[in-house]
Design a protein that fits this description.
By secondary structure, this protein is an alpha/beta fold. It is built from eight helices and five strands; from the N terminus they run H-E-H-E-H-H-H-E-H-H-E-E-H. The chain has a domain of 131 residues: Phosphoglycerate mutase-like (Rossmann fold), CATH 3.40.50.1240.
C-alpha cells in the first residue's frame, strides 16, 4: 500500500513539484504578447491548483486570466484499489486483479472507481464546455490536470483507438509539468482542426535546471 495519510485530493506539491511549476511559469512568461494562456482550467486536486497558482505567480498567464476549477478534470478515481500497488491489488483483491487482466485497463472499473472510459465521458462534457465558452482565435486555454487526463484528452482530440492510446501510455509516463499542446491547423477540415504540436515537452524544465520527474501521482501504480 502506498503510504498517504489523507485523501489523494489533498496531497500537496513536493518541493521538486514547486520548482517544476515555477520553471514552467517562467517559460510561459517569456512568450511574446498574445501567446500566453488567457484561460486556465484546473483539476480540483490541491497539487494541480497549486501548480496553476505558481504558473500564474511567475507571470505565465495573461494578467486578466484567473484559474477556474473544473471537477471534470480530476484524477481518475480508483475506488477500493486506491493507494494499492499492483502487488497490493493481487494480494488483497485477487479477483479484481484477474478481472482487470481479462478486461484490460481501458474498460476495467474497480468497485467505487472509474474506468478510462468513465474519465473519457466526463472529458467529453468538459471539451463541450471549452468549445462553447472558450473557443476562438484569441482564446488560449491552459489545462492543469493529471496523467490519465492528458492521455484521455489525446484519445478524444486525436480520435484514437483503445490500442493507440494504451501504446502511448505503455511507452512512458507523462512527466510532471510536461507540456502537451495543440493549435488550430486551418488546412485540416472545412474550418480547421486541432493538431498536436508537442507531447510531454519538458524543455522548459531542463532549461531552468528544474528536475524532470516521471513518477506518477501516488495511486497510478494501481492502474
Amino acid at each position: 500500500m502506498i503510504d498517504i495519510a489523507g485523501r489523494d485530493v489533498d496531497v500537496p506539491l513536493s518541493a521538486s513539484g514547486e520548482r517544476q511549476a515555477e520553471a514552467l511559469g517562467r517559460w510561459f512568461a517569456a512568450m511574446p504578447e498574445g501567446a500566453r494562456p488567457n484561460i486556465v482550467l484546473s483539476s480540483p486536486y490541491l497539487r494541480a491548483r497549486h501548480t496553476a497558482a505558481l504558473i500564474e505567480a511567475e507571470g505565465g498567464v495573461e494578467p486578466a486570466a484567473r484559474t477556474r476549477v473544473d471537477e471534470r478534470l480530476r484524477e481518475k478515481e480508483f475506488g477500493i484499489v486506491d493507494r494499492l500497488t499492483r502487488v497490493g491489488i493481487e494480494q488483497k483483491y485477487p479477483e479484481q486483479a484477474e478481472m482487470r487482466a481479462r478486461i484490460g485497463k481501458f474498460y476495467y472499473r474497480p468497485p467505487g472507481g472509474e474506468s478510462w472510459c468513465d474519465v473519457i465521458l466526463r472529458l467529453r462534457s468538459a471539451l463541450d464546455t471549452i468549445s462553447l465558452h472558450h473557443s476562438g482565435p484569441e482564446k488560449r486555454v491552459l489545462i492543469v490536470a493529471h496523467q490519465v487526463i492528458v492521455l484521455c484528452l489525446r484519445y478524444l482530440l486525436e480520435g484514437m483507438t483503445e490500442a493507440q492510446i494504451l501504446a502511448i501510455d505503455a511507452a512512458g509516463d507523462v512527466a510532471n509539468c510536461g507540456v502537451t499542446a495543440y493549435s488550430i491547423n486551418p488546412e485540416i477540415g472545412r474550418d480547421g482542426e486541432l493538431q498536436l504540436r508537442t507531447y510531454n515537452f519538458v524543455a522548459p524544465l531542463e532549461e531552468a535546471g528544474a528536475p524532470v520527474t516521471t513518477r506518477p501521482d501516488p495511486p497510478v501504480a494501481a492502474r
